[in-house]
């Protein structure tokens, strides 16, 4: 079970992602990379994203301030503001099942990891985190979106 598996209070990672969706018979491909800075104590998240969606480049900077429940997004030189829901710690759910204990890397450089399986908003999630510290390494999500389309998402995180 995922009991108590929450990352350190503050951490940052650099991520790559690949996502494919299908909606109404049309497929969409998203590729990208971003930096993520998370502080559970201060309830703040900052990110800088570069995505290519169906061949179109998108650059986005985002600050999520859960103390004021406000998200600020900067895209194409324009800043927009939108409300956020209440803060939820970024943790593996308590009802998640451990499906694998293994290692990333080899020899003296290997890192012990755990892979959890759980459902989030109807999507099946495989989340691989460090065995010590619960730092996210890989996330793979799949299923049917609430809009009825197929969804596949793969995210690699270098912390």
Automatic annotation (TrEMBL):
GO terms for cellular component: extracellular region; lysosome. GO terms for molecular function: calcium ion binding. Signal peptide: none annotated. GO terms for biological process: cell-matrix adhesion. Pfam families: Ependymin (PF00811). It comes from the Eukaryota. This is Uncharacterized protein. It comes from Potamilus streckersoni.
């Amino acid at each position: 079970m995922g009991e108590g598996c929450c990352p350190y209070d503050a951490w940052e990672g650099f991520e790559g992602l690949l996502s494919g969706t299908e909606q109404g018979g049309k497929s969409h491909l998203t590729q990208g990379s971003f930096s993520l800075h998370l502080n559970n104590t201060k309830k703040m998240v900052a990110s800088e994203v570069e995505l290519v969606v169906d061949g179109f480049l998108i650059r986005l900077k985002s600050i999520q301030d859960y103390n004021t429940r406000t998200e600020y997004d900067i895209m194409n030189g324009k800043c927009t503001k939108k409300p956020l829901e209440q803060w939820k710690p970024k943790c593996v759910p308590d009802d998640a099942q451990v499906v694998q204990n293994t290692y990333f890397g080899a020899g003296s450089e290997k890192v012990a990891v755990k892979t959890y399986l759980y459902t989030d908003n109807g999507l099946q999630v495989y989340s691989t985190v460090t065995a010590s510290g619960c730092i996210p390494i890989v996330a793979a999500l799949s299923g049917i979106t609430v809009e009825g389309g197929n969804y596949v998402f793969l995210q690699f995180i270098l912390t």
